[in-house]
Amino acid sequence: MATFEDVKGVVDDYYPLYINGQWVHGGDGERLTVTCPANGEVVTTAAVATKEDVDAAIMAAWQAWPKWRQVSQQERYTILLKIYERINAKLQHFAMVEALNCGKTVSGAVWEMLFAADQFPYFASVLRTHEDGISRPYHNVRSLVVREPVGVVGAITPWNAPFIMAAWKLAPALAAGNCVVLKPSSFTPASSMELIKEIADLLPPGVVNVVNGKGSTVGQWVLDHPGITKLSFTGSTEVGRTVGHAAAEKIIPATLELGGKSAGIYFGDIPEEKFGDAVACGVQNILMLAGQGCSLQSRILVEDTLYDRYVEALAGVFRGFKVGMPWEEDAQMGAIAYKSHMESILGYIDSGIEQGARLVCGGHRITDPPFDKGLFIEPTIFADVDSKMRIAQEEIFGPVVVVIKFHGEEEAVQIANDSVYGLGGGVFSGDLAKAIRVAEAVRTGTVTINGALSNPAGGAFGGFKESGIGRENYKTTLDHFSQLKTIHFPL
């Protein structure tokens, strides 16, 4: 069985900044220390950008932009396809880097790499079919509507899925003809840096730049910089408000993909032969990525006629779920990404117990060797949960699911909508018409019927309410990275 020593070589010991096609070491020599959450070992270090480095990255982007925006659709299309090929050729490599840095299993990370890679051919295709328009307002006048890139995009990505989120921002931004300054999370920069290493030679200097550092400093410098003309952010709702305010101050567009407390709704009419699938969906929709996903269904709503049986079956799978080191082939769930977040999850578990929810299984940090130096939490289920409890309302972002009882379709929709969030969700029922009615009634951006969560390219992803503004992963995303110009001309 592979060990940490066997696999840690996939990550470089040190990553400089990437500015104007060059690897640079940062103005004051400060470095981030990046650790593996599974064992506390140092994975890598990364240069920390100064304010002057951020200025240089944005200046480089603007210097590259006039030529990049004029690159033909055919050439940009070809570059995007080459990026896709490069990622696909090293799926296992990127997945292992992501696993070491984030704590997720390699098998889960491979799934993310596939979806990340697919962004590039998808938006390459959108680029070729996203045509401008012409109209005839008068018999002797023509109006031409053309799309132009917004300029320089400030892209800020989260710690839980850094590789796929970088792809979700780079692909449409580059397809539309923009240049990008990317700021990865200070906790998990390694996979983003590996991606840039792999594709740097495909792009002219300055088209993509990467600055590492804390969000409170480097991220804020990106937000406030007058040279940024579009912000694209994925992360918490709390930080998303700061990003939205920064965009409003400068009167520039922002795409915000924020938090979630998604509901999976399970009706009592599930056919007996599909009951196992329904339980498997409940497991996958929360324990994937150790629950550290914004659209995972952390609230499971089960109809009263099915409730006790479903909770018992779900607990049986949770208790047997294989928690392991990220690089182990048989591991089903890995580690929590960083220590203070693990402590937050444990705090929510304590809150659930204090407020009277029934702890069915899990609920503890795993400290037995070989997990004693890592950040692992048992797969956890709370039953008999009131929808007003903290654990039912606030985003826990860990391997903790709350199971809430409902009676009938109307109450299911009411409980599902009783949230400030509206990002993902699901419906499992033997009655397709009912499932569609509920899917339409729930105020959330994505709903999966009788299946596990999936966000393939071409499926618009984004949220209602405090889950964000705008959509990613869909053809209209290109509009968010473009501006429309109308040119009138007489005949």
Give a written overview of the molecule.
The protein is of the alpha/beta class and 491 residues long. The chain has helices at residues 4-7, 51-70, 73-89, 91-102, 106-129, 162-175, 190-199, 215-224, 237-250, 275-287, 307-320, 339-354, 390-393, 408-417, 432-441, 477-480; strands spanning 14-15, 17-19, 22-24, 31-35, 42-47, 133-138, 141-149, 152-156, 179-183, 208-210, 230-234, 254-257, 263-266, 299-303, 358-361, 380-383, 400-406, 421-422, 425-428, 448-449, 464-465, 468-469, 482-490. The protein has a seven-stranded mixed beta sheet with strand order 15-16-17-14-13-19-20, with helices on both faces. Strands 10-9-8-11-12-22 form a six-stranded mixed beta sheet, with helices on both faces. It has two domains: 4-258 and 468-490, Aldehyde Dehydrogenase, Chain A, domain 1; 263-456, Aldehyde Dehydrogenase, Chain A, domain 2, CATH 3.40.309. The termini are far apart. It is 40% helix and 21% strand. The protein is built from 16 helices and 23 strands.
Number of domains: 2
Separation of the first and last Cα atoms: 74 Å
Q: Give a short account of the largest sheet.
A: 7 strands, mixed
Spatial shape: globular
Mean pLDDT: 96
How many alpha or pi helices? Answer: 16
Percent of residues in beta strands: 15-25%
CATH topology of the largest domain: Aldehyde Dehydrogenase, Chain A, domain 1
CATH class of the largest domain: Alpha Beta
Number of strands: 23
